[in-house]
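re: that complex we talked abt at group meeting.

here r the seqs, copy pasted straight from the sheet so there may be weird spacing, ignore it
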Amino acid sequence: MRCRKCGEKAVINMRQHRLSLCKQHYLEWLPNHILKLIKKYEMFSEHDRVLVAVSGGKDSLALWDILWKLGFHTEGFYINLGIDAEIAYSNRSMEFAQNFANQRNLTLHIADVKRDYGESIPEISVRTRRGRTKPCSLCGLIRRHMMNQFAVNGQYDVLVTAHNLDDEAAILLANTLDWSLEFLARGEPVLPSKPGFIKKVKPLCRTYEREAAAYAILRDIEYMRDECPFSIDSKQRYYKKYLNEWEQKRPGTKLRFYLNYLTAIAQGAFPTRQESAQQLAQQRCPQCGQPTNTGGLCAFCKLFDKK
Amino acid sequence: MGETNATLLLRGKSISCRSKIQLRKAMKENNISVSAHLAVRSGELITDDEIIKPGDLIELISVSSGG
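got the structure back, here u go
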C-alpha cells in the first residue's frame, strides 16, 4: 500500500477516510486534523491555559504531544490511583507520564488518591458496593471529581481529556442500549463551563484508537501498554469488541455512528445542554464545595463518609 | 516452526502463522481483530495488506483500552 500524498510505502491505512499515508505525512496529517477540530468545535485558543488529563497511556500522551507541537499552553495532570498489584500499573503509568513531560520540559501535576484521601482505588473498591460491582464507574467518578477540582482551583480555561472515537462510540452504544437520555446529552466534543465546572473538551473524539496508537509509536512515545487489571472485563471493552467487528465489515461504522449522533443532538433529539445543566449544579456539596444534585454530600464525598 | 512459517507476537505470546499471505488473512485465521491491532515488523509499522515473508517476526500491538 502506498502513501496517497507521496507514493512512498504507507504505514497506516485509514479505511474510513480511504486514506493511506507514510510516516512523514501521517505525522503531519493527524496534528492538522486535530487542529481543525479544535477550531471547528471552538475548544480553546492559543491564549488559553489548557490542562491535559494524562494517564500515561497512548491517547493522552499522543494528544499532549500534538498540542505541545501545535504550540498550545499546556500543563498535564496525572492521578495516581494506587492500582498496583502485580504489574505496578499506576506507578509505571506515572513514570511514563513523568518521563514524557521531562523530555519536553512540560509541567506535570501529580495527585495521589491514597495520599490525598487515605485509600487507593482498590481499597475503596473493596469497601463500597459501587466499587465491588462497577470498579470502572467508581474510578471514573473519582477521576472526574479530582480533575474538575484541580482545574477549577488552578483557574485553567479548559480541561482536555483524551477520549478517542472508540471510547465515544462505545459509551454511545451503551447509553443507547440503556436509553440513558441524560447521559446521551453529554457526549458532545465540548461540555461548556458552568458554575463549579470547568469547560471540558475532547480533541480526539473523531480519532480512532489505532490512529492515536500509531501516532505514539511513530513519534517514539513510550506509553503504558498494559491494561488496567480492573478494566479487563469492563462493559466498555465488551462494546468495543463488537464495534471493531462491525468496523471490520463496514469501515467507517464507528465514525458514522458518532457523527450522526452529533447531528441528532444538533436537531434536538436529546435534552439540551441547558436543560441538563439546570438539573445539575443546583446545590453545592457542604464538604468539597463542588456542584451536586444529591441534596447533601456529593457522590465523591459520600465515598469517604464513613459515619 | 517450519521455515515457511512466520511468527505473530501478541502480548508476549508467539503464534505461528503461514507466510506468503497477507497479514490481514493471517490475523483473521488466528481470530485477531485487524481493527484493534497495529503491526510492527523490524521496528516499522506495516499495513495489513503486507505479504508475510517466511521467518518474519511481526509484533501485534493491541490498541484497545478502556474501563
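couple things i noticed - The interface with chain A takes residues 33-38, 40, 44-50, 61-67 of chain B (CB under 8 Å). The longest strand of chain B covers residues 5-10.
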